[in-house]
Design goal:
The complex is a heterodimer. Chain A is built from 15 helices and 15 strands. Classes of the chains: A alpha/beta, B alpha+beta.
């Protein structure tokens, strides 16, 4: 399967923890950017001839800054330029501070079937320390409106590990949210280098929870989510039956996808490429008919294997044991797998292995260990 | 050149006392090297020598000095100064009739100078005392002259004063060399007797022996025999050293030069060996020959197991030019396949490692250097142990003996106390001391070789703010109360981390190593227990708690590349680690033990 990702790198203000490419200080999307997206799409179309796309994902930034009219034009453009599935999953990310009920209804009318709301928390103080512009009430209202508007699938982002977050505040946020949604992405606050939160932490202005507390909170949150009827299908994602995000699942199964917009990533035929990050330069090069591609990577067979391993291990389905064992003929891998199963970090299911709940928190270390066993010949010194 | 016009001499000096500069000046003054080829430290041609300012191989150079109407052949033999190469030094001295004792006027006599000086005196060399760097503001000309007179029993007038840097007094020095150093006394009519004082390897011509002819004549076409091996060779070429080797018709009694004789391996051209006429059955060897024996051992392992063959080839190549290097394959559970290498001393070890890494692009892990222990078993037999992991079962051991050295420390008197404390810490025993002058003392003491292997010299320097110097001679084996300390990781012994230590020190060592390993081994998926044990008795224990969280939470937006690159880097790192059971140990853990405070 294949998907289309559209990046909208504009926000009202930049959140201090956000590591994605976006620019604050925008209340609407610059016209030139929308024009550039159209040209980019038209030029990509010939390379993606013969592909049938099953999902469109409009992410950001804050794509809910798009007016319903602009969104309609964008979706029309995509369905005219590309061959879409009969019933594509069309997702937009939404910030509760930027979307009202009327606009939401129009979104549904132009084709949006899935919405991913950046709720993060329903405690004012916590939203404050994350630098979010919306109030808890706005977030709850948006979730309610989405249901009323007839959105098929409602998802919420929740963050665990916010400074001063406790079991009680987390429980409050989660219970309020879970009854209103079909899908949840719940992650531990990660401190990306280059964000302003990173600086605050390094300078001691913000105290993060201890690792022990963070892990306890997260595992407790996972249990709460699962007790409410959600299924854990990827390290940070849970869904009610039938509500898994098809677009993201495509990433985790090494599927192909087209990325449109500044800083967007694409993957086609073991070739990964990224568009220019700075949106002004992106617009410039697209409108001047030069290539907006900043970086291209041709994957070696070894890199393909590593990606398979690291991506599939994120999902609850996991990896086929035979596939792994064929790559390590001397049996090293089987020993390691047995060890990890005995230590309760991996679970064996039929033909697959997958991370246990405890193992999911150690995903990187376990992937590294398995990757080190893959027998791929080493270049010799001379 | 007639024998009475030949002078063979060397320069005895401490590092940085100006030996190379003086040599450069002598070469200039005798027009030996055209000025376009002249550069600093011209005799030290190995990059490592030039960089470190030390001499590793012996060199020789022939100069022609015109004094009034006469021409003299001056052969300067440049010797390594470091204690690791004591034997080579002694052979080079044996090739000379005289020595310039070069002392820095601002520093005074150092321990290393003393031991080489005593060796020269033992070889009956005529000593020409020279005070260098008299141009320096800090020069203590009178003090140091007095010091030299005390040591040599000479009068102050006999001490020449020069500045090699400025060229002051160098011409006078050359005249004194000719006047004071005796001409060689052999004759060319006697049967051939020549000393090999060093050798080098040439890939086209085989071993090139550096020789000093004592009696007779050495020329191409003649058949010669080397007394230590009994092997006979035909001489293909002889010659003298100028900046390069210059062939000659013959080398006569008294001369210094080189010989090419189809000797395939450098180990067959042993330093100290005697060259005689092949037909001369009654020839007796020149005194002082000794087979080179390694004093220090260390396991060398390639960081990347696949480079074992590269390491083997590199060692073979180095050995072509370094007869003192020994190695044999060994296996370690922790480090895989490698070689147990024997070295003359720590400097030699460092040099070999550095050359392997620099000239052959290898990345190496070296185990803690060890001496050769002599283990006396209950059944009366003895075994030599160079690798602590190979120590026999303690129940079979009667006692263990370790090599000792006699150390000479020269120090300003104010540092005597801290230095004596250091000697005591290192299980040393004081023998005696002598005042060298009003400010400096020579301390003589016995020390186990194992205790000076790591950082002793650095400690001597730091305790004395750099003023004390240190040198040693091997003195023999003595019984000691030694035990083997094992390091266990999750119950598995790590053979490469085993050490043999004195029983009084084993607790401190064990605790230190365990604590440091706790810092160096990263947290893993499960708990890691580090133990230090003597036999079955655990003397130190540390625990590394397991990882709780190590996850990339978000993987969206299609940026797979960044995450994969991180994985590729981590995986490469993992491969460079060594696995003990399930535990991966980074290389730094092994490297650290080389620097552990004892």
């Amino acid at each position: 399967m294949a998907g289309i990702y559209v990046h909208i790198p504009f926000c009202l203000s930049k959140c201090p923890y956000c590591g994605f490419y976006s620019e604050g200080g925008h209340e609407r999307i610059p016209r030139s950017y929308l024009e550039a997206l159209a040209v980019d799409a038209a030029r990509e179309a010939c390379h993606w001839n013969g592909y049938r796309f099953e999902s469109i994902y409009i992410g950001g930034g804050t794509p809910s800054l798009l007016s319903a009219h602009d969104l309609e034009k964008l979706l029309d453009l995509l369905s005219n330029s590309f061959c879409l599935n009969d019933n594509p999953e069309i997702t937009i990310e939404a910030n509760p501070a930027t979307l009202n009920q009327v606009q939401l209804r129009q979104y549904v009318k132009v084709g949006i079937g899935r919405i991913s709301v950046g709720v993060q928390s329903l405690v004012s103080a916590e939203l404050g320390s994350l630098g979010r512009q919306h109030s808890p009430a706005q977030a709850v209202a948006l979730l309610n409106w989405a249901r009323e508007a007839g959105i098929d699938s409602i998802s919420a982002d929740v963050i665990v590990g916010i400074p001063d977050q406790t079991h009680e505040t987390l429980a409050w946020s989660l219970t309020m949210i879970l009854s209103r949604i079909d899908h949840i992405s719940c992650y531990m606050l990660s401190i990306d280098e280059g964000t302003s939160l990173y600086l605050d932490v390094r300078l001691g202005r913000v105290a993060l929870p201890s690792e022990r507390h963070l892990v306890a909170l997260y595992r407790w949150a996972a249990r709460l989510i699962e007790d409410s009827g959600f299924e854990h299908y990827e390290i940070s994602n849970w869904c009610r039956p039938g509500h898994a995000c098809r677009h993201n699942q495509n990433y985790w199964s090494r599927g192909e996808y087209l990325g449109l917009g500044a800083g967007a990533h694409s993957h086609r035929k073991n070739r990964r490429y990224m568009k220019v990050k700075d949106w002004r330069r992106y617009v410039d090069s697209v409108l001047r008919h030069s290539s907006p591609i900043a970086r291209v990577e041709h994957l070696s067979p070894e890199q393909v294997l590593l990606e398979e391993l690291m991506l599939r291990l994120r999902t609850s389905r996991g990896i086929n044991i035979k596939w792994l064992e064929e790559l390590t003929p001397d049996g090293r891998c089987s020993h390691l797998i047995d060890d990890l199963v005995t230590s309760g970090l991996l679970v064996k299911t039929d033909e697959n292995i997958s991370l246990s709940p405890r193992g999911m928190l150690l995903e990187r270390a376990i992937t590294e260990k398995l990757a080190a066993q893959l027998s791929i010949s080493q270049p010799l010194l001379r | 050149m007639e024998g009475n016009r030949i002078r063979n001499f060397c320069i005895i000096a401490h590092i940085d006392h100006g030996k190379s500069t003086l040599a450069d000046r002598l070469l200039e003054l005798t027009d030996t090297i055209p000025s376009k080829d002249m550069r600093d430290q011209v005799l030290d041609n190995m990059p490592l020598e030039r960089e470190r300012g030390i001499t590793i191989k012996s060199h020789a150079i022939t100069m022609y000095y015109h004094q009034r109407d006469e021409v003299f052949e001056l052969n300067l033999i440049d010797t390594p100064g470091h204690v690791d190469f004591t034997y080579e030094v002694s052979r080079s001295l044996a090739a000379c009739e005289g020595a310039i004792l070069l002392v820095d006027a601002s520093q005074g006599v150092e321990a290393q100078t003393l031991s080489n000086l005593y060796m020269a005196i033992e070889n009956n060399l005529e000593i020409v005392p020279v005070l260098n760097k008299i141009d320096l503001k800090a020069a203590r000309i009178d003090d140091v002259t007095e010091q030299m007179c005390d040591i040599l029993g000479c009068s102050p007038d006999e001490v020449l004063k020069v500045s090699a840097k400025e060229g002051w007094g160098v011409k006078e020095l050359l005249e004194e060399v000719v006047r004071r150093i005796p001409a060689p006394d052999g004759t060319s009519h006697n049967p051939l007797k020549a000393l090999i004082f060093d050798s080098t390897f040439d890939q086209y011509r085989g071993a090139v022996a550096y020789v000093r002819v004592f009696d007779g004549e050495l020329k191409p076409g003649m058949k010669v025999r080397l007394l230590s091996t009994g092997n006979v060779y035909e001489v293909m070429e002889v010659g003298v050293f100028q900046l390069r080797m210059v062939p000659r018709q013959t080398l006569i009694a008294g001369e210094v030069g080189y010989m090419v004789a189809g000797i395939k391996n450098i180990v067959d051209a042993n330093v100290g060996d005697t060259v005689v006429d092949a037909s001369d059955d009654k020839a007796s060897p020149l005194p002082g020959y000794r087979r080179l024996k390694p004093m220090v051992y260390s396991g060398l392992y390639p960081t990347d197991g696949e480079h074992f063959e590269v390491l083997r080839e590199a060692l073979l190549k180095l050995r072509l030019n370094d007869a003192a290097l020994t190695f044999e394959p060994e296996t370690s559970q922790a480090l895989g396949f490698g070689f147990r290498c024997g070295f003359l001393g720590l400097l030699h070890m460092e040099i070999v490692q550095e050359r392997l890494e620099r000239e052959y692009g290898l990345s190496l892990i070296a185990t803690v250097p060890s001496v050769r222990y002599r283990v006396v078993l209950k059944d009366g037999s003895t075994v030599d142990v160079e690798n602590p992991a190979h120590l026999p079962d303690p129940l079979r051991i009667e006692h263990i003996e370790e090599p000792f050295v006699v150390a000479q420390i020269v120090t300003p008197i104010e540092y005597i106390d801290p230095l004596m404390r250091l000697v005591k810490e290192r299980r040393g025993a004081y023998r005696r001391s002598e005042m060298l002058d009003s400010r400096r003392t020579l301390i003589i003491c016995d020390l186990p070789l194992a205790e000076i292997l790591v950082d002793f010299h650095d400690r001597v320097k730091s305790l004395s703010k750099g003023y004390a110097s240190f040198d040693y001679d091997f003195s023999g084996y003595q019984p000691s109360e030694l035990v083997k300390l094992d390091i266990l990781v999750n119950g598995d012994p790590v053979d490469a981390l085993s050490v043999i230590v004195h029983k009084d020190k084993v607790h401190r060592w064990g605790k230190q190593i365990a604590a440091k390993l706790k810092d160096l081994i990263p947290r893993q998926l499960f708990q890691v227990v580090i133990q230090a044990a003597v036999g079955s008795r655990v003397i130190a224990r540390e625990t590394i708690s397991p990882l709780r969280k190590n996850v990339t939470a978000k993987c969206y937006g299609g940026d797979i590349t960044r995450k994969r690159k991180l994985l590729e880097r981590q995986r490469e790192g993992k491969r460079r680690m060594k696995s003990i059971g399930k535990v991966t140990i980074p290389q730094e853990a092994f490297l650290y033990l080389l620097r552990v405070e004892r």
